[in-house]
Amino acid sequence: MNGSSAVRYAVRGDNAIQPGEWNIDVLGPLDVRRAGRSVELPPRRRSLLALLALRVGTMVTVDGLVDALWGEDPPPTAVRTLHSHIAKLAALLPGQGEGRLIQRREPGYLLAADAARVDRVRFEELVGDGLKYVTEGRYAESARLLETALTLWRGEALADCPVHGWALAEVDYLHELRLQAHEGLFASRLALGLPETGVGELERLVAEHPLRERLWELLIVALHLGGRTSDALNAYRRARHGLVEELGLDPGEGLRQVEAGVLRGVTSARELLRLPAGRAVADLRPSTVPQQVSTLIGRESEIAEIRELVAAHRLVTLTGPGGVGKTRLAIAAARPAEDVAFVDLAPLHDGAGVVAAIAEALGMHQLPDLGELARRVGRDRLLMVVDNCEHLAGECARIIGGLLGRCPRLRVLATSQEALRVSGEVLRPIPELCVPPPALVRSGADLAGHAAAVLFADRAGLGPVAELPAADARAVATICARCHGLPLAIELAAARARMFTLPEIAQRLRDPFAVLTDGPRGARPQHRALRATVEWSYRLLAAEERRALRRYSVFSGTFSLEAAGAVHPETPRLETLGRLVDKSLVKVERTATGTRYRLLPAIREYALDRLAARPGEHVQARRAHARHHQGWAERFEQRLQGPHLGAQVVRIAERHEDVRAALTWLTGNDPDGALRLAAALWRYHYLCGGYAEGRAWLSSALAACPPGVPPRTRAKALWALARLAALECDYREADGHARQALELYTREDDPAGVAQARALLGAIARELGHYDRALDLARRSLAAAERGGDRWAVGHALQLLGFVSWLSGDGDAAVRYSGQAVHHFGPNGDRERLAWCRIDLGAAAYYAGDPDAAARHLHEALVISFGIRFREGIAWAENLLALVDLRLGRDRQALRRLVTSLKLHHELGDRWRLASVLDALAGALTARDAPLAAALLGTAARLRDEMGAAVPACERPALTGTRAALADRLGAEPFERAHTMGRLQDVPALVERLAGRTETTR
């Protein structure tokens, strides 16, 4: 079988098609359906989707797809054409992020296993189980499964999809498996005493496959047992003749034994076909597995994997937090087993009742000891499901371990919030359901494929999620996110749909414990409200574990082992945290920067309530949390200028929510610490585009700080505030704070600080169009940096000189200064500054009339900026690359780049550069939509008027040309009217409008 167990589907029970699911059938002509509706695809894209479906859940390399699509002689443009087909196919099969049906996985693509049902996967599982049951003598079950499997075929596999290479081998494999299913089905029917049901079909199969000896064996036995012994012997002679004529071989041992048995008059199909004895129904113990009342949604892959684990291991424990659905998964996974005992330990209060609960499940009427239990199970083939072991884990481990040691055919499937720690135990953590990202949901179609949304819609009676109105779809996404994908929480929230609208439920879930109550009557007490579920888990903890959990609740996001020790230093952090991980209360997350930990959201909310009820402990934990992050940020600030800048930005991003929490606490309790932390974070806020947030924290920290703050600390905070204000084009405030910082740095005789402050004042002058003053300040900054021996500050001043030079129209000076800046930044590997140098060199080359050189520099800047998540660098590089594209006649690509740059600059709040992008867009749209182009120019002019900024000198000729072309096209008076239509508040609408236009021009 191809692919992992994670892509296999449940065969029986809980496997109904869910609304919004994709069905891709390859066992015949390709058939693609979404929510039961057929989806038509062009021929080549049909073949491409079929190839991905053949290996659903497994990455197929680009080379492999090319080989399978075109064979040994692909066209020279095959790879490019493939990517184009993939893009168009993805557009026809909608989805977002991890919910996309087709996903990029270097070095190829895959069809997401949890987003699509492929009949080949279900066929493989049915046949696998059916053939296994034949070997176990379970003929009625095997016949049912194999008959079901064969009904999935609608003709030759991929009959309408031309494929080559490995795909042909996959098709051959499927046809071989189909033949094995036929053979197993007929063997089971014969063993059940039904010889007459398959003679005609067997005659057809042996005619198509005359050299397949097992088919001849089955035909001969069917004829013999049906009273046609002479026909059976004649069939043997036909088989022998064909083998001798075609292969020069005599029949094999199996076929000869069948002939011998027919000649002896044997009438047992099992003996003739060498099949095992069947099991009598009377030997089987009645199943005690509870029946599911509602369907299990979004768990097909987990069910299939659990079944495989149970088949391969004798003790499998499903772990996870309360409410994640362990019990229902265990029941669903155990359903196909013919001999199951279900043991529910939830009602028990101590370990003394475990043996009695097992005995009751086994039908024993007297209270046995462990030895009697073992004798009762004996050598029977039994699957025992032991549910809710967490509160009796020690006793469960002793009893289960003892039974497994004495009962060789016993298998145990347990559910528990923590491992039982029995030798041979295999753990299968159960994850939360897939949640749609609320920010990406615009319609019901965006919910399809997300199990959490499908579950909520099913339980709330909403119908197919794909048909929900936009407002309801967004509300469902928010509800699922606030339930954190926890099935119990989702079902409790769905029950509220009788009382509130979906947006109202989403709003009320800001306090989930107040909303997620009143579960179904008859449910276990810990499953009738989310708070009760969490309290159940909390009560099972030792006192020290509860204390640690309360302390860890101050973390808003993920945290490291070091941070855990900082907020709770009284106990060994590794041991304490490890116990909470084992008990499914803390999740382990593997990130690019290492291992981190996160409290499950519901657990965190509850533990935070418990912490707040202990004021002294609460203050202690908050203080430790804030000081840890303050010290960490101050240490990391310098790393944001080195060669590993991208990784450091990721590190801070991982801690962003906790840094916010630390700033909040410090601002009210330690103003000096708040000022130091906010100042240490300025560069992070700059790199990630969080200008407004960084500026707000610095403003509040400076306002709250007492007069006795060290001058250099205040100067640094003022400079950082000025820098972020300048980036938001608030030049008056930026200039005032920068001058205060310069005064403090001068008084403190700090050459590096003086250089930074002068450079910032020069940058402000540059954007206001005061180029002479900007150059003078940059040169004075360079002198201060050289005097202080600060190589980075020297490079920064040189880069500023290069920037001002090309804006003012002096391309030669720009190249000279920017080249020197690269020389200074190269050794320390500051990728953010190197990106700026490449932007400056690219701009200088563009305005000097060398678009090829400009493109090289700007592409390098774009790659660097993406690598370090530098949004301003991306926005600038896209802007200038668009100008290159326009000069080279690539208008559509230029328009897409300009819209990307417009969107980024608007989100960043950089109105100065936003105005230039609007001017460039007006030039690109002059011939296509003159009224819109005029309105864009008007918006840019209004922006500059509000800021007091001028059009950059290098851009004035192009702007003059655009104005003249629009006046000529529209007429002077209509141009002025259209020009006045531009409004600052219309910028977001412009982004949406232009983004839609770029889609239609692709």
TrEMBL record:
Gene Ontology molecular function terms on file: DNA binding
Alphabetical list of SMART domains matching this protein: BTAD, TPR, Trans_reg_C
Gene3D superfamilies per the UniProt record, alphabetical: P-loop containing nucleotide triphosphate hydrolases (3.40.50.300), Tetratricopeptide repeat domain (1.25.40.10), Winged helix-like DNA-binding domain superfamily/Winged helix DNA-binding domain (1.10.10.10)
Ranges annotated as DNA-binding: 14-113
Signal peptide: none
Keywords: DNA-binding
InterPro entries per the UniProt record, alphabetical: BTAD, OmpR/PhoB-type_DNA-bd, P-loop_NTPase, Sig_transdc_resp-reg_C-effctor, TPR-like_helical_dom_sf, TPR_rpt, WH-like_DNA-bd_sf
Highest taxon listed in the record's lineage: Bacteria
Pfam families: BTAD (PF03704), Trans_reg_C (PF00486)
Biological process (GO), any one: phosphorelay signal transduction system
Coiled coil location: none
Domain OmpR/PhoB-type: 14-113
PANTHER family per UniProt: HTH-TYPE TRANSCRIPTIONAL REGULATOR RV0890C-RELATED, REGULATOR-RELATED
Similarity comment text for this entry: Belongs to the AfsR/DnrI/RedD regulatory family.
Protein name per Swiss-Prot or TrEMBL: OmpR/PhoB-type domain-containing protein
Upper taxonomic lineage: Bacteria, Bacillati, Actinomycetota, Actinomycetes, Streptosporangiales
